[in-house]
Every structure is written in structure tokens, then in C-alpha cells.
Design brief:
2 domains; 47% helix
Length: 369
Amino acid sequence: MGGNHRDAWVYGAVDPNSGTASMLEAVHGVGELLKAGWKPKRSIIFGSWDAEEEGLIGSTEWGEQHAAQLANAVAYLNMDVAVSGPKFVASSVPSLKQFLRDVARAVPGAKGGTVYDAWQKSSRPEPDNAQTPTEAIGDSRRSPQAQVNQDVPVGDLGSGSDYTVFLQHVGVPSTDVSSTGPYGVYHSVFDNFNWFKNFGDPDFKYEQQMARVFGLQAIRMANADVLPYDYQQYGREILAYLDAAKKKADGAFGSQSPDFKPAADSARKFEQAGAKVLALQRKQSSDLARLNHALRNAESALLLPDGLPNRPWFRHAIYAPGQYTGYAAVVIPGVNEAIDKHDLQLAKQQIDALAAALERATRVLNGAH
């Protein structure tokens, strides 16, 4: 399913109405396909959320109410601010990062080429003598904590938008896309149509681009014979998270630093299981239902039965918004936040909980064989 919120602090031309317009245009495109006789292999639900600005209320209520049905949802595709400028950015769980890159390769760019071409160009490091572009307030970019390949960076999901309940409470693999730029009118009375027409997207080319990106994600996810997840990539990123956390723990606890080996061993098993399943995906195994069931449920297996310490509603073992980082993601949050608190016993407990979650997810992936 996919969604965007419709409430704003004031006029909300960019946040959220640029996303609402792009989503509705994507819905229009899907409607034209249906009129022409096309039928998706999976159901597609588009959500227009209310009360997002008041604490993600609309999407959270809906996600909690429909948690049982969402156990079968293959993805949640989010779009909040569709356009505040020309720079394409995306965030997702690691298993869907390559899926986003593939979609971007298939969509025409607003200024020629493809979205991927522009994304690749804008992701190149700035020359040492170049002025660093100003980060936009309200920028949906989530810088990845680990970059395990040389492709365009796809960020991590923290919070601040409607994917939160789907990923971090229910365990639905999620994505978030945006076209960003300097956006000094964020959440103000000046975020109006005049600003958007003069500065955001004067000819509405980026609006069209984002509608195509959003719609193509939905169509490909609904029609894929084999779900396009990459759990080998997921495992590699978790191993990088663990390596960074171990170094931080060694600095915090010295000779008493907890043993990360069980979690690292579990992450390697998870990566290896992901590689085996990826080979099955490429062969398109005859038992597609079994394969897709395993691919979908691996994400849910990463939920912690008791949730994170001090905030049990957040249940994902790999991603959460930091308690003190605003929208930004904290990876393997139970472990990292225990280290930040210098709580050795809690760190050991959370390493064990993480290892158990990875073992569960590995068993699910191994069930695809």
C-alpha cells in the first residue's frame, strides 16, 4: 500500500500537498490502467492520512486497527513532501534499496535522462573548494548509517512521517521518496502556492516525476511474481552497524565491553540466508508462494516481542527514531542507546535480543528452500 497525509500546519503547498497531488495523479494513472483491462496480482491500497502533523495520528490509528491484515502487506510506500526542489532522495529498509534504484532507472527525469541519472549526479561528493549546499529544513533525506556498495545512497527510516507505524510497529517493509531543495518556509504560513510556483517547481515537472516514481513502485510491487527484496544487502548493513556499535562499546566500557560475537554470528547467518534466497529469486522457483511468504515475513521476524526499552510501542530491532535525534534514525537502537547510556547490563540484554531477532528472521528465510 502507499500513502500521504493531507493535513498541514497552515497552507501546506509543499508539506503535504505536493505529495497529495503526486499521489492522486499516480492513483489516476492506476485507474486508467484498470479501465484498459489491467489487473494487479495483489491488492493496492492508497491511504490519505489525517492528523499527521499532530503526531502521526491518522496513519497510526489505521495501522494499529488493521495490524492483522497488514501481516500480509508486502510493502508500505510513503510520500510526504513530494517536491521542495530538484534533488531526488529516497529512504527504505535495506531489502528495498535496490528496488528503489531500479524504479528510478525506469522513470524519465524532470530535466531529461532518468531520475537515476540525476540522482547519481546529485550524490557525487562536492569538490573541496565548493560551497556545501544548505540542507533543507524538513528535508526527508535519511543519510545511511552504512554504505556497503558504491551505488547512490538510500537513507535509513527514522520517523517524522506516516511510514512509522507500518515499519516500526507492524513490521511492513517501507520506502519514502522525495525531491528536495532549499525550503526555508517549512511549516510556516509562507508554504503556500505562491512559494511553490515561484521557487519549488514552477513548471510542475518534478510533480509529474514524483507521481511516476510513486505509481511505478506500487505497480511493480503489486505485479511482481517474486517480491523484489534483497536480504543479503540487509545482512551486510546490519554487520556494519554491529561493527560500529562494537567500537563505540569498546570506548564506553573498556575491558568490560560486552561480547558482540553472538549478534555478529547471527547477522552473518542472516546475510548468508539472504544470499541463498536471492539465488532462488533469480531462478524464480516453482514454489513462488512459499518463496514470497518467506521474503515478506523476514521483516516481521525482526520485531522485538517486548519492544524497545522504555518505549515498547517501537518494536523494530534494526530501526527506530532516536529518543533525542528528532526524525533521524538510530540503527540497532536497543544496543546503541544502551551504550549511549553507559548501561552495561542493558547493552548485553539488547545484544541478546538483537541476536534472537536475527535468528528468527534467518529461520524464516531458510523456510523458502
